[in-house]
Specification:
The protein is built from 9 helices and no strands. By secondary structure, the chain is mainly alpha-helical. It has one domain: Tetratricopeptide repeat domain (Serine Threonine Protein Phosphatase 5, Tetratricopeptide repeat). The longest helix is centred in the N-terminal third of the chain and has 27 residues.
């Protein structure tokens, strides 16, 4: 790849990271949670009270609430409310992604594409982008298209056998 082509790819990966964080937060804020502790935690996060958000999300995430797990991932990824820790962010994104939350699947795809908190793995990134794209609601076409574009971006760096492997992993995936 030429230096210009490599620079363009790196610039697109940087944009991928920003788009992913925004997408995850919008998806999580627009979630279908009922009034209660999760809504209170989201409200604290929306008002930039990240320490309170962390305190409120933690017990919910520990009890398996996917939306809270995704928010903890975002907190650890950004370093807002807790020290930045990509491995911890990836751990929480994975818990929510395994339950089928598309914003967390997308964020996990970014973590694999960038090698943040997990080994860089384009097969895994492709898989998670595919799963996110397939689960975003029809009304959320922008996020779906973003996941598809980012899947195409990582696909451009993959061999045909890696693409086939990623597609198989996505087809065989089941929520936990």
């Amino acid at each position: 790849m030429t230096r210009v082509g490599e620079h363009h790819r790196k610039t697109r990966f940087a944009a991928l990271c920003v788009r992913g964080a925004v997408s995850l937060l919008v998806a999580a804020l627009a979630g279908t949670a009922t009034a209660g502790p999760l809504e209170e935690a989201k409200e604290a996060y929306a008002h930039a009270d990240y320490a309170a958000a962390l305190r409120l999300f933690q017990p919910l995430a520990d009890s398996g609430v996917a939306g809270a797990q995704a928010f903890l991932g975002a907190i650890y990824e950004s370093g807002r409310g807790a020290p930045q820790d990509y491995a911890e962010a990836a751990r929480w994104f994975r818990k929510a992604a395994d339950q089928g939350l598309p914003g967390a699947q997308y964020a996990l795809g970014i973590m694999y594409a960038k090698g943040r908190g997990v080994p860089q793995d384009y097969v895994e990134a492709h898989k998670w982008f595919s799963l996110a794209a397939s689960r975003y609601a029809e009304a959320n076409a922008e996020d779906r298209n973003g996941a598809l574009q980012d899947r195409e971006l990582v696909e451009s760096t993959m061999t045909p056998s890696q693409i086939a492997e990623a597609q198989k992993l996505a087809r065989d995936w089941n929520p936990q």
